[in-house]
């Protein structure tokens, strides 16, 4: 029987810019596997505007830390060879690697060009607020450090449809590039009227040369790295038809099991459903609506009704396409989409994504190992490890929900014969101490279960009728299960 899969987002915004991150990944692969992690999403691997840039200010897609460009050979995370070695080490340890792709824009151009634009209202990009006029924009990418190695394609203003800075006037704005067949793409999110434009020089996917170059790059990258899948950044700003074509081409190249997950940062379920329809369900989406539910629950405390925690979430309506997460690099403190799930609820939130039947859960590096930078946050490895272990060894079989009290909810996983000792009872409270009477199965009568989190010290004996009462501390979570006969440090036993 297949074990549950668990992903880790292997970076946070303030990972040290010391060029050691790929080495860290290679070194930590065995311990990640032992903890129950069998896939990692790594940050953008391509050369950005500086050695400190997290990777989203992407400059050269073909430079993976190999050429002397933007004042550095390595990226923030290391060199190309260190990256290739890290991926190989992960695969050797049974860990799939998903690479973050930034395909919406380019930054750090080599030269400016003069071309015509129309300025638009930033709050309604369909509304022109100027006549056509000339600007000097940073849109010429010649890659002098790389030359024609891997690709001879050079970018200029005809390959973009928008930019945000006029070097001639020294001012910012949202400038739509004017010209034949130029305009915002219509197959994008409709926030601000049209959300094709996000930042920097915006890639124009109505240009056939651009489309072909990006498809060729996607195939080159997977051949070069031998990775297991992609995480696509900011896809609500990219022509949805191109995303569909890109996913199809990558799967054609690497096989149907090549995995793709997209960041479609929209908590509107209907928008997510429309997007999945458009791309023929070839990719999964992060469950942004669940993230905001967890955030609201953390803010609301006992006033939040836990029985509704999964209402209007992707994991509820599209479980096969939902990638669940508690927090990430954008939602962490002081970042663009800050919506940090508070400490008191963090372990409960992870139980909600790790110990249920549906969704592909992601553990955030910043939650597990901590956050650096000017406002450090301590990691919660000790709180998350027991949940990872329970996911790997216990959370299998039928799922019975006991969502019948606004402040105390529970569910039972009944276990499967193929995994000895599997099955668990999870209880969460956001109010006072509570308990939940749940059915484990008559065949389990007499079994003595412990709280794997260590939050409760007593044991619970399953009644002969298969029922038992499982307690939980106020504002806490307990995961009750049959203890392993020989507890070891490693969660994954060979």
TrEMBL record:
Binding site for Ca(2+) 1: 104, 196, 237
SUPFAM superfamilies in the record: (Trans)glycosidases, Glycosyl hydrolase domain
Superkingdom, taxonomy of origin: Bacteria
Keyword Nucleus: no
Lineage: Bacteria, Bacillati, Bacillota, Bacilli, Bacillales
Family membership noted in the UniProt record: Belongs to the glycosyl hydrolase 13 family.
Keyword Metal-binding carried by entry: yes
Residue ranges of the TM segments: none
GO molecular function, one term: calcium ion binding
The protein's name: Alpha-amylase
Database matches in NCBIfam families: PRK09441.1-1, PRK09441.1-2
Cofactor(s) needed by this chain: Ca(2+)
Span of domain Glycosyl hydrolase family 13 catalytic: 5-391
Catalytic residues (UniProt): 233, 263
One protein family per Pfam: Alpha-amy_C_pro
Annotated GO biological process: carbohydrate metabolic process
Natural source organism: Paenibacillus borealis
């Amino acid at each position: 029987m297949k074990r549950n899969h668990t992903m880790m987002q292997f970076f946070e915004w303030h990972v040290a810019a010391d060029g050691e991150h790929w080495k860290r990944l290679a070194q930590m692969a065995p311990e990640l596997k032992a903890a129950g992690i069998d896939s990692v999403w790594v940050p953008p691997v391509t050369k950005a505007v500086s050695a400190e840039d997290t990777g989203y200010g992407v400059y050269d897609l073909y430079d993976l830390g190999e050429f002397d460009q933007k004042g550095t050979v390595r990226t923030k995370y290391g060199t190309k060879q260190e990256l290739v070695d890290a991926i190989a080490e992960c695969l050797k340890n049974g860990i799939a690697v998903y690479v973050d792709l930034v395909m919406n824009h380019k930054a750090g151009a080599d030269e400016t060009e003069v071309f015509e634009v129309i300025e638009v209202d930033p709050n309604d990009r369909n509304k022109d607020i100027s006549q056509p006029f000339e600007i000097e924009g940073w849109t010429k990418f010649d890659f002098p450090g790389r030359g024609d190695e891997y690709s001879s394609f050079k970018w200029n203003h005809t390959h973009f449809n928008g930019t945000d800075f006029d070097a001639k006037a020294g001012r910012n704005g949202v400038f739509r590039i004017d010209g034949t067949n130029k305009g915002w793409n219509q197959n994008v999110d409709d926030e601000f009227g049209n959300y094709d434009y996000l930042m920097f020089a915006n890639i124009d996917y109505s240009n056939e040369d651009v489309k072909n170059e990006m498809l060729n790059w996607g195939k080159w990258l997977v051949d070069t790295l031998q990775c297991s899948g992609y995480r696509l950044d900011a896809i609500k700003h990219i022509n949805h038809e191109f995303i569909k074509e890109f996913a199809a081409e990558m799967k054609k190249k690497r096989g149907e099991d090549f995995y793709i997950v997209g960041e479609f940062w929209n908590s509107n379920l209907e928008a997510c459903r429309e997007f999945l329809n458009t791309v023929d369900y070839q990719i999964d989406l992060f469950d942004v609506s669940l993230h905001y539910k967890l955030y609201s629950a953390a803010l609301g405390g006992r006033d939040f009704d836990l029985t509704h925690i999964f209402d209007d979430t992707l994991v509820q309506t599209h479980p096969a396409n939902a990638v669940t997460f508690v927090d990430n690099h954008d939602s962490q403190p002081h970042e663009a989409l800050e919506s940090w799930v508070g400490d008191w609820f963090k372990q409960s939130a992870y139980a909600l994504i790790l110990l249920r039947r549906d969704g592909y859960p992601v553990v955030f590096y910043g939650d597990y190992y901590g956050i650096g930078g000017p406002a450090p946050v301590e990691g919660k490895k000790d709180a998350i490890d027991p949940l990872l272990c329970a996911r790997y060894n216990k959370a299998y079989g039928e799922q019975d929900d006991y969502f019948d009290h606004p402040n105390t909810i529970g569910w039972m996983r009944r276990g499967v014969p193929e995994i000895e000792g599997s099955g668990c009872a999870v209880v969460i409270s956001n109010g006072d101490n509570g308990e939940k009477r749940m059915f484990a199965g008559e065949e389990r009568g007499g079994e003595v279960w412990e709280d794997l989190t260590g939050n409760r010290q007593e044991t619970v004996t399953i009644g002969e009728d298969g029922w038992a009462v499982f307690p939980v501390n106020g504002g806490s979570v307990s995961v009750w299960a049959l203890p392993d006969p020989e507890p070891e440090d490693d969660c994954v036993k060979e």
